Amino acid sequence: MSEAILTLESLEAGYGEVQVLWGISLGAARGKLTTIVGANGVGKTTALRAAVGSIRPWGGRIVFKGDDVTRLAPHLKAARGLALVPEGRQLFSAMSVEENLEMGAYAKHGERSYASRLEHVYELFPRLKERRRQSAGTFSGGEQQMLAIARGLMSDPDLLIIDELSLGLAPVVVHQIFATLKTLKEDGLSILLVEQNVHLAFALSDYAYVLAEGRLFTEGPPEKLEAMPEIRRAYLGL
Amino acid sequence: MSALLEVEGLSKDFGGLRAVDALSFSVREGAILGLIGPNGAGKSTVFNLINGVFAPDKGRVVFRGEDVTGKPPYLVARHGLARTNQIVQPFANMSVLENCTVGACFGRENLRLARAREAARETAAMVGLDDRLDTLASQLTIAGKKRLELARALAARPTLLLLDEVLAGLNPTEVEHMIGIIRRIRDGGVSILMIEHLMQAIMSLSDSIVVLNSGAKLAEGLPAEVANDPAVIEAYLGDPDLAAKLRAA
User: Quick check: A175 and B245 CB within 8 A?
Assistant: First the structure.
């Protein structure tokens, strides 16, 4: 595995009194596509939330580009180049495409290169350019996911984190989006992906982590994991 | 053995969304039945339909030979059906003993206060809270609150217990302890219908499993049968076709 841009070390987190993560350690390699898979409720989203700082970890450490960012506020992490495309997209639905993209560039990191970033995301997603004055709420699920990714890219991140990429999307759209991610990766972007569909995750990632019950079940290159019958056990317990 | 609970063709819509879709299954006397399924499959709604929190749009709930469809929860409880809640709901400013006593007062035997207190002591001991009888519920750890939730339901002396994620948020030692308690409850003659996300635990505890997906029954059988069912595997691991198509492209 190449050098990690983000590492989670023995991360523990939860909500209220309920602990969800029981000490997971994982890393997103620089210039690679890393996926986290696992059944519903195992803590994938919780791990991402802790990583970007929208929830505070109970224990463990988060290191981004060599710095300990465990207690850093989300907007400061964004300013350092960490962007999250949240589950369910969470667009500003009353705003136009371009206004959403502007919001994405809010962090310092994105500000200075606004015009060129905008051009770049319109190149990646020509459909967004065609509809740049249209309000985001009128978009199909696939277009919304494209816009959410584009918004994430507007902050000029070093690591793009995407939660539940394929959820509710038509196969053709998933295909398009993955092709775009591949382009981004070839341009040097590091990507960390949470994906419900384990086959999809394995088909597209360089390295994968399998979570079960708030812990790391196994990890490895997808071709190795795919051959493991015990992956099913992480999902079904038997 | 005969069926203690029979659910027949149960359906429930919430604002146009079908949360439960023509669901039928039964719980045998003395058995543990596990209800599993991805998030949003409708598991907790099924519990709410069985114990009367919601009335179903269609279908019947027959418990101990009596049609209890749409009856309010307190009457269903009196008939011998108790439940725990996924998010624990203790009376925070009452003690462990008082919480359990409430359960006993409004349960199957409709006990008077003195007898109810006795029953409360017994069930608190069963879940290992006998050294915490005077502790306020709010002072318990999450593991303690989970056990109290169970003890309060058990104090109603139910014939059927509905357990909604009693293991969630517990550490491995506490999970082991709770599994032991659940086994003892069943061995004491109480039948159990349980929802649980900890798959290893529910697969080892349950005599049989019902898999729910989008409100409908996807599979039913022994734990090993269900875990090897291709439709169940696909519901959990995702559709393999999409990946195959991407690879081919």
Answer: yes
- Please, what is the Cα angle at B154 between B22 and B145, to 5 degrees? 95
Structure tokens at B169: 């948020």
**CA B159 – CA B82 distance, rounded (Å):** 8
Tell me the nearest-neighbour CA distance from B248 into chain A, angstroms.
Answer: 11
A133 CB-near residues (< 8 Å, 6+ apart): A96, A97, A98
The verdict on A22 touching B (C-beta cutoff 8 Å) is yes
Query: For residue A107, is pLDDT > 80?
Result: no
> Would the pLDDT of A208 be above 90?
yes
Q: Would the pLDDT of A231 be above 90?
A: no
A200: chain B residues, CB-CB within 8 Å? 238, 242-243, 246
Residue B99 token pair: 């919480």
| Arithmetic mean of pLDDT, B193-201 | 93
A175 contacts in chain B (CB < 8 Å):
245-246, 249
Q: Any residues with CB less than 8 A from the CB of A140 and at least 6 apart, and which?
A: none
What is d(CA B154, CA B103) in angstroms, rounded to the nearest whole number? 8
- The beta-strand segments (E) located in chain B are 3-14, 17-28, 32-36, 58-63, 66-67, 81-83, 160-164, 191-195, 208-213, 216-221
Express as a percent the part of chain A with pLDDT over 70: 97
| Interface contact B246-A174, CB threshold 8 A | yes
The reply to whether ipTM tops 0.95 is no
Q: Which of A52-66, A165-179, B53-67, B212-226 has the lowest mean pLDDT?
A: A165-179
Residue B53 φ/ψ region, left for φ over 0, alpha for ψ in the -120 to 50 degree band, beta for the rest: alpha
- In the sheet that B208-213 helps form, which strands lie side by side, from edge to edge? B81-83, B160-164, B191-195, B32-36, B208-213, B216-221
pLDDT at A66: 95
pTM: 0.84
Q: Measured between alpha carbons, how far is B61 from B92 in angstroms, rounded to an integer?
A: 32
| pLDDT value for A109 | 62
Residue A174's H or E segment, with its range, is: helix A171-186
- Closest Cβ opposite residue A18 in set B169, B199, B223: B169
Read off the DSSP letter of residue B115. H
Q: Which two tokens stand for residue B187?
A: 């061995």
